[in-house]
Fold this protein.
Amino acid sequence: MKLIGTLALVGGLALNLAASGMALAHSDAGHAKKAAPVHKEQKAWGIAGDAKAVTRTIEVRMTDAMRFTPDRIEVRQGETVRFVHRNDGMILHEFVLGTKQELDEHAALMKRFPNMEHDEPYMAHVGAGKRGEIIWTFNRAGDFDFACLIPGHYEAGMVGKVNVSPSKKS
């Protein structure tokens, strides 16, 4: 499922649901990991990874100062990383991997539909004092981004960078 494509496909459905009083909740309650298999869709920044392929774990802390620690991450092309997100704050935060353009587009949608639900393998929604995780395979080299796209958080600078260096040729 593509977030933007979903809204485009349903047309006015999201608006109709909101107008009808039905909530499209954006809380951590709606983002519990499901038992269903993860949908693997190739993205410019990689693809959902398998737990058994994890080569390292990176802990990312989130704070109400609207910052990630670390906010710069180096990985090698082909590496599968388990990101463990720890929300040290008192409010919901999220970690969304993507390109700057994708994050900008998603942030704009979040402003228009702040209560929308979404659950992609490159996103983690983490309640206050909780932890979350994603497993991602960086199968493409380049500079990518991550951010908290909750309205106001992105604009306050809750962003970071991932540099994926090319794999060494044998």
